[in-house]
Design a protein that fits this description.
4 domains; Beta-Lactamase; 5-stranded antiparallel β-sheet; 5-stranded parallel β-sheet; alpha/beta; about 15% strand
């Protein structure tokens, strides 16, 4: 299964992956990848990787969205991955998609970025031994000594919010002292509230509470008499200090809570957007297998962990899709999956049922029934799912179940329509056969009865006429049976060709002679070019095909109206044309001229299939011509608003 998925993921040949992020260079990366795709005539995709718990500012998120829109406009396939190890996520996707070229940008050198973030291009160049990596240059080189300082500064990152809070309080002290010198005020505590609100809005509750306490101490030390001590001389000053502390703590808590709510709302919005993209991508898939594979890949990208989808197959769960590709599932995991499917509840990791397993399974439910389960990994690398991730998984599972149910219903509807069409065809064929066989059989029966009962009373000429009539009707029945057998072989793809070099002029002469023997009253005219070549074909089938076309012309052309058989020789093909002067084919009927059971009364109206009345003649002619690698077409009107021309086109081969 893994091999099949990998083959379906990417055809052989070059395949390009562009990796973008919040850097301003991302549009340039997309355009370079597009140019490389055009040069190599290769498919390409664009990927962005999100880190769990890492929040981007609005400007960065906007840059990513703009770059993705640009890539989608240029025809790229879009992928979004989630994970902490960015190079591993990108390379995993690249190897699954059979990517041969990776395009990535070298971002602008920034002080904090150079210290606190890995260089993704450097890691890809180091790890991607079997994939070419193209680095699009940024605006400036990164500062190498900043990179060397990163390991030493990494432990300091956790205290940076408190450092910024301290700096905010220090700034408030400086501003307060400046205001006191320029315009003495009785109370500058509001400036310190600004210093509290800053870390609350940026870093959260605890740095804000820390800023409240530091502001309390700084306000006492620098602005309450006696200055530069923590002693408070007046009682009302002490009360004011504690009121300030309470207000500062409450304000910081409220501001921090608002920030946390904003982050939660942003997370929910992101989940909603992912759910919308997930649903939109699944809605474009029609086959059950494609929906399962697409859902597995999208769930894995959204949750940042391996994903399995198992579907019900005659009462047993079968592994239908996995990302990364997986061939088998161990017995314990299959037991948990069956329990989840049977009991309609979660099973596996962090549940009451087989909690030690490295997989967490939830059922796929539809309004009609349960159709399978979806499982996500739970290992040391991929920790437990939090409540938000579980809620998102449940939503993704519901959407997956709905998409799978839709695909299954579409398959059932298609099967039902096919069965209904087959039944209609059978009924139409039986009705046609019962009607069209009855007339010649009645004629044969009447002629035979006359010969038997009145043989001694009939003169030789009358007996000969009755016998000729019997033979003519029997030949017609034989042709109808041959047509029925031919259309059956064509539909089953069992039409066998006995190819040989054939002369279309000889075949046309035989068909015209047979039509005249059956009583065709139209005069036939043959016009052959002097350089008429032989063609490769099955003589019997070509004769049957041409015979059906000639019979159609006879059936729908008034008496004494010319029927012309001619040919046109081109470099790569030979066109055999049958033109009649009948009323022609109406424009609304012409597109269906070669479909089965298209019939019309004759000769007053201009229906399209004479054949022997079954409505199969031109359909059989089309199947025979296509089996020879040729084609058949109808033109109407031909001249003066009437007439029909049927053109049989044969591929031309070198004559031996």
């Amino acid at each position: 299964m893994a091999i099949e998925q990998a083959q379906r993921a990417s055809p052989a040949g070059e395949r390009i992956l562009a990796c973008i992020g919040p850097d301003p260079i991302s549009p340039s990366v997309v355009r370079n990848a597009k140019r490389l795709s055009n040069l190599m005539n290769a498919p390409w995709l664009v990927v962005t990787v999100e880190r769990p718990g890492h929040r981007l500012d609005d400007a960065s998120r906007r840059r990513i969205e703009d770059a993705l829109k640009l890539a989608e406009t240029l025809g790229a396939e879009i992928k979004t991955l989630v994970g902490n190890d960015l190079p591993a996520q990108v390379l995993r996707l690249a190897r699954f998609e059979n990517v041969t070229q990776i395009v990535i940008g070298r971002p602008r050198a920034r002080l904090l970025g150079g210290i606190f973030h890995r260089s993704l291009p450097h890691e890809l160049l180091r790890r991607a031994d079997d994939i070419a990596v193209h680095v699009v240059p940024g605006r400036a080189e990164s500062i190498r000594w900043l990179r060397r300082l990163r390991p030493a500064i990494e432990p300091v990152r956790g205290i940076m919010p408190y450092v910024w809070s301290t700096l905010a309080v220090a700034a408030a002290v400086g501003i307060g002292r400046l205001i006191s010198v320029l315009a003495p005020l009785p109370n500058v505590s509001m400036i310190f509230l600004m210093a509290v609100l800053f870390p609350a809005a940026i870093f959260g509750i605890w740095p804000a509470i820390y800023a409240s306490v530091v502001s309390f101490l700084a306000y006492n030390f620098f602005f309450i008499e006696p200055l530069y001590t923590f002693t408070v001389a007046e009682a009302y000053e002490l009360l004011a200090l504690f009121v300030f502390l309470v207000i500062a703590v409450i304000t910081s808590a409220l501001a921090g809570r608002v920030r946390e709510q904003a982050r939660t709302s942003e997370g929910r919005m992101r989940s909603t957007r992912r759910l919308y993209e997930f649903t939109r991508k699944l809605s474009a898939l029609a086959r059950l297998e494609d929906v399962a594979e697409g859902a597995a890949g999208e769930i894995s990208s959204t949750l940042g962990r391996p994903t399995l989808i198992l579907l019900d197959d005659a009462g047993e769960l079968a592994l239908r899709a996995a990302w990364p590709p997986e061939d088998v599932l161990d017995a314990a995991a299959m037991t948990a999956a069956r329990w989840s499917f049977t009991h309609d509840g979660p099973a596996g990791a962090d549940t009451a049922t087989l909690p030690t397993l490295p997989w967490f399974f939830v059922p796929l439910r539809t309004p009609r029934s349960r159709i399978g389960v979806v499982g996500v990994a739970r290992t040391d690398e991929f920790g437990p799912l939090d409540s938000e991730a579980r809620a998102l998984l449940d939503a993704l599972a519901d959407q997956t179940a709905a998409a799978l149910d839709r695909a299954a219903l579409a398959r059932e509807i298609l099967s039902t329509r096919t069965a209904a069409a087959t039944e209609r065809t059978r009924n139409t064929l039986l009705a046609s056969i019962s009607h069209d066989f009855r007339t010649p059989l009645s004629s044969i029966l009447g002629s035979a009865t006359s010969l038997i009962e009145y043989s001694d009373k009939l003169d030789p000429a009358e007996r000969k006429d009755l016998l000729g009539h019997i033979r003519s009707e029997a030949e017609g029945l034989d042709e109808m049976v041959r047509n029925l057998l031919a259309i059956t072989r064509i539909q089953e793809g069992a039409l066998e060709l006995r190819l040989d070099w054939i002369d279309l002029r000889e075949i046309a002469d035989r068909v015209v002679s047979a039509a005249r023997r059956r009583g065709a009253s139209q005069p036939f005219e043959a016009r052959w070019p002097s350089d008429m070549p032989l063609v490769r074909g099955d003589a019997a089938l070509v004769e049957q095909s041409l015979g059906n076309v000639i019979n159609n012309a006879v059936a729908h052309t008034p008496a004494r109206t010319h029927v012309i058989v001619d040919a046109e020789v081109e470099n790569a093909r030979v066109k055999l044309r049958i033109t009649d002067g009948g009323p022609g084919i109406p424009a609304e009927v012409l597109p269906q001229a070669f479909e089965k059971f298209v019939r019309a009364p004759r000769p007053e109206t201009s229906g399209v299939d004479g054949g022997q009345g079954t409505g199969l003649g031109l359909a059989i002619a089309k199947g025979i011509m296509e089996a020879h690698g040729g084609s058949i077409a109808a033109e109407s009107p031909v001249a003066h608003g009437c007439g029909t021309r049927i053109v049989l086109t044969f591929p031309r081969a070198d004559t031996p």
